[in-house]
Amino acid sequence: MYLLATHPDVQQKLQEEVDATFPNKAPPTYNALVQMEYLDMVLSESLRLFPIAGRLERFCKKDVEINGVFIPKGTVVMVPSLVIHQDPVHWSEPEEFRPESIIGSVQADNLRVPHP
User: Fold this and answer.
1) Are the CB atoms for 65 and 73 separated by under 8 Å?
2) Is residue 114 part of a domain?
3) What class of enzyme is it (predicted)?
4) Is residue 100 within 8 Å of residue 39, measured between CB atoms?
5) Count of domains in the chain?
6) Among 30, 39, 42, 116, which residue has the least CB neighbours within 10 Å?
7) Residues 73-95: what's their mean pLDDT?
8) Residue 21 sits in which domain range?
């Protein structure tokens, strides 16, 4: 809500999508919601700037080597999602709230993946 309140242009564009998707204040449906591309971009961009968790932890289930680095079975691997989401290598102007930036960061065949 804060990001929408401080970015009236984004709020207006999202309101236009809501009005077009639900004319005459029609009740929302799952099928209609999943078709709302701009809403998805706004939510993904909000989570990029303010992730639920600053890092993800995964338990290595088997010995593996990645790019010459050996990771033994049982190792806890930590992925710093907050740092990655603020990395200018993956995001132009990473500190800015720009829902459209999500489009350039995902693979064309999977628009639901908000990670580089």
Assistant:
1) no
2) no
3) oxidoreductase
4) no
5) 1
6) 30
7) 90
8) 2-105
Q: Say what percent of the chain tops pLDDT 70.
A: 89
Q: What count of other Cβ atoms lies within 10 Å of the Cβ of residue 26?
A: 9
Question: In this structure, is residue 116 part of a structural domain?
Answer: no
pLDDT in tens, 101-113: 877 654 444 444 4
DSSP-derived secondary structure for 31-81: HHHHT-HHHHHHHHHHHHHS-S-S-EEEE--S-EEETTEEE-TTPEEEE-H
Give the contacts of 65 (CB within 8 A, at least 6 positions apart): 71
Question: What φ, ψ does residue 43 adopt, rounded to 5°?
Answer: -65, -45
Question: Radius of gyration (Cα) for the chain, nearest Å?
Answer: 18
Q: What is the pTM of this model?
A: 0.74
Q: What are phi and psi of 49, to 5 degrees?
A: -75, -35
What residues have CB less than 8 Å from 13, skipping those under 6 apart? 38
Contacts of 96 (CB under 8 A, 6+ apart): none
